[in-house]
Amino acid sequence: MKQHYDVVIIGGAVIGSSVAYFLSQNPDFNGSILVVERDPTYVRAATSLSSSSIRNQFSNPINVEISRFGTEFIRNFAEVMQVAGDKPDLQFHEGGYLFLANTSDQVQTLRENHEVQIACGADVVLWDREELSRAFPHLNTDDILLASYGRSGEGWFNNTGLMYGFKNKARELGADYITDEVVAIHRDNNRVTGVELKSGQTISAGIIVNASGVSAALTARMAGLDVPIEPRKRTLFVYDCAQTPEGSATVNGGRLPLMIDPSGVFCRPEGRFFLTGCPPVEDPAVDWDDFTPRYEEFEDIIWPALAERSPAFEAIKVVNQWAGHYDFNVLDHNLIVGRHPEVENFIYANGFSGHGLQQGPATGRAVSELITYNAFRTLDLSEVGYERVIANKPFLEKAVI
């Protein structure tokens, strides 16, 4: 390992490895890349513990475009990311997203969001109650006023496959990875100059990228900076269904989508089972090592909502559960991507608030452009830069789950 790298990336999960890949594959970038990852098993990474989904149904054009690029990238992933003839199959199930509305406010939001999505080229349709019932006859639609359904470009995929695909290809293209932990960041006035590792090594750096997930605020503080991100816990449950409704749809080959109930409870097929979760009633910051599932959410919130939405979900049984962390942006629940305006060789790629997997490809591309060309070239992410944090101006996104 060298003593100096042009780019040091702190965090080697999906965001850090995406940055490393897009940099290393760019013929206009000829610098050296080091990725520092403290846990190569990734057992507690947000990537590994997520629901592994992607959607185009956002309210802000930037988020729609970010995900549309992510969809195309995932579709072509096996060919682009092959290493030594091995083509990583992400098993992308384009089951779609289905948003349900049963209040006038929810209906207005779906309609406004739909206008944005269609303008960006997303394949999304609005359905009334009758159309919804014909498409998914297992649902109780008596209270539903409007539904928004992604016919293509949305679904779920192999989460760790995306991460390891980026990592393996970046290494093949010349990026270095080490298992270590950054314990200090050196700074000289308005420039960061390097990192100190737990192993005792010091590595000088031309640019440092903060891709450390829920630890983003701790990483920033080492450089004397800040970012409004904290760990928030989300519990996911896998349940078996006595009489599964999968296969009963009259669209998309019978496959069911990822459904977001008006209550906020969501569920989607997961092999022969279903995956589900809900927004917590209370959502405080949690300790970095608190991964205890909130078991009561299933009995108190999820099961009643699912049973009311479909008779098929009355007889269900939990077969697995786990808790993961969101790298939660407390300002506006959206990504922060870009340079610090004063310490310009410190770059943020943080705060995805549950959308990191689907936004990983576009984020890696954007950060690589910023490093290589000092500007965004494909998709302008200036609106989600760090400047809005300083100005305390939230980036508005209405479709946050």
Automatic annotation (TrEMBL):
SUPFAM superfamilies: FAD/NAD(P)-binding domain (SSF51905). The keyword Transmembrane helix applies. The chain crosses the membrane at residues 7-24. Keywords: Membrane, Oxidoreductase, Transmembrane, Transmembrane helix. Its EC number is 1.-.-.-. It holds the Pfam family DAO. It is an enzyme of class 1 (oxidoreductase). The keyword Membrane applies. Residues 6-370 form the FAD dependent oxidoreductase domain. It comes from the Bacteria. GO terms for molecular function: oxidoreductase activity. This is NAD(P)/FAD-dependent oxidoreductase. It comes from Pseudochrobactrum kiredjianiae.
